[in-house]
């Protein structure tokens, strides 16, 4: 929980986000509780990207003019800053357009028989029933392309990975899971899952989209082989994501996309490829977005990720407490703060999630409604859709109160006692 020693100056933080002052239809100030879908950006991120575009923009890694040099320096400095933020070495970070592309990159290359860790017929790929589609469908496709078998851990009644639902054997080549569920908020037991994978010689792929913006993350310390996260969920720009890969693995991997920027030599008969990370960054990269993402990492680091985590835990605890007291509201996910992160998903008996979302929108409260790109998980709980409030460093307890009041209004409007 947040203490006096690490309590944030939320007013100062909120002043960095101009959009939070917006008055929505109905005359209500925006309460933005949809950061699990996409986060808002502080002025520092907007200014960093704008300054780069106005003063130093050019094609990176090519040419001999000053703008090219400055753009290349900014791009590679961004890589260095982001690597430091997630406990990785600079050459272990590949820029992609989003986390979905990063996960597809890994899944695609693991089907390429030039890679000595490639998946083949009879092998097993393991994921979980909790996953966002971006960490499920690529593995379904890899299984289809290679003749491998897809298996998965089930989900407990409180929305966590059910470790008793699956045993691994030597056929397992990949274990892929989310650090935090984007629906239940459940925190994965990373140490245990990594240990199980290591015991059978499997690679570990981590979807870190819902953890990197909200808590201290160190990929080396976690011991995973690959990890992916998106810029737009951590106060950064859209159009950029990150793939972390252990250096030894990246060096052995063939490319995902081919063309310019990722080559070493080219003849009419064939080509050789640049070393990582350039090998996996074909074409003109998202330079200004990388600069903006690095600014977001520096912004969060200056606040302190321990303080961010503690502040958000206070918000989540208040939301769980308030929502659980409303008749007919059911939380989809753990109640214990030790087992969860930011997203709080819920259903209201007899009221469709979209109707709940509409009532909240009338109050200026922005939440996500639907299946959140996690259909199998919603089927597991027997619901078509949930409403989800997801928090970030700029949210307040007052906004949690507005969420709870809005849900109470929805219950009253649709005729529940």
UniProtKB/TrEMBL annotation:
Top EC class of this enzyme: transferase
EC numbers: 2.8.1.7
Keywords, ordered alphabetically: Pyridoxal phosphate, Transferase
Gene Ontology BP annotations: cysteine metabolic process
GO molecular function, one term: cysteine desulfurase activity
Keyword Transferase: yes
Named cofactor requirement(s): pyridoxal 5'-phosphate
Cited CDD domains: SufS_like (cd06453)
Protein name: Cysteine desulfurase
Keyword Transferase: yes
Family: Belongs to the class-V pyridoxal-phosphate-dependent aminotransferase family. Csd subfamily.
NCBIfam families according to UniProt: sufS
One matching Pfam family: Aminotran_5
Function (record text): Catalyzes the removal of elemental sulfur and selenium atoms from L-cysteine, L-cystine, L-selenocysteine, and L-selenocystine to produce L-alanine.
């Amino acid at each position: 929980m947040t203490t006096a020693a690490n309590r944030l100056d939320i007013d100062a933080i909120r002043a960095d986000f101009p959009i939070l002052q917006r008055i929505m239809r109905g005359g209500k100030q925006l309460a933005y509780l949809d950061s699990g879908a996409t986060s808002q950006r502080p002025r520092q991120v907007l200014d960093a990207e704008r300054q780069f575009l106005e003063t130093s923009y050019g094609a990176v890694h090519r040419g001999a003019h000053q703008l090219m040099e400055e753009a290349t320096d900014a791009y590679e400095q961004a890589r260095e800053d982001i690597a430091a933020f997630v406990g990785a070495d600079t050459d272990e970070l590949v820029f992609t357009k989003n986390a979905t592309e990063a996960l597809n990159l890994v899944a695609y290359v693991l089907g390429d028989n030039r890679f000595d860790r490639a998946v083949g017929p009879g092998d097993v790929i393991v994921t979980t029933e909790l996953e966002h589609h971006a960490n499920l469908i690529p593995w379904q496709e890899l299984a289809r392309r290679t003749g491998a078998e897809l298996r998965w851990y089930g989900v407990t009644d409180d929305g966590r990975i059910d470790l008793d639902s699956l045993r691994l054997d030597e056929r397992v080549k990949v274990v892929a899971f989310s650090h935090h569920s984007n629906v239940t908020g459940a925190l994965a037991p990373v140490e245990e899952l990594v240990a199980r994978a290591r015991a059978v010689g499997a690679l570990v792929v981590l979807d870190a989209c819902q953890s990197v913006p909200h808590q201290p993350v160190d990929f080396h310390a976690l011991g995973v082989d690959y990890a992916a996260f998106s810029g737009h969920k951590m106060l950064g720009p859209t159009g950029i994501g990150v793939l972390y890969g252990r250096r030894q693995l990246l060096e052995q991997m063939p490319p995902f996309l081919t063309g310019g920027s990722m080559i070493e030599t080219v003849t009419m008969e064939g080509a050789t490829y640049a070393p990582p990370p350039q090998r996996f960054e074909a074409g003109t990269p998202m330079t200004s977005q990388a600069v903006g993402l690095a600014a977001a990492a520096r912004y969060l680091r200056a606040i302190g990720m321990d303080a961010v985590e503690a502040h958000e835990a206070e918000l989540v605890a208040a939301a769980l407490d308030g929502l659980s007291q409303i008749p007919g509201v059911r939380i989809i996910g753990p109640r214990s703060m030790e087992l969860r992160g930011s997203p709080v998903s819920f259903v209201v008996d007899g009221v469709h999630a979209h109707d709940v979302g509409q009532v909240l929108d009338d109050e200026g409260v922005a939440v996500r409604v639907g299946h959140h790109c996690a259909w199998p998980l919603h089927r597991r709980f027997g619901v078509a859709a949930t409403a989800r409030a997801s928090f970030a460093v700029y949210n307040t307890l007052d906004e949690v109160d507005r969420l709870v009041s809005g849900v109470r209004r929805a219950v009253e409007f649709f005729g529940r006692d």
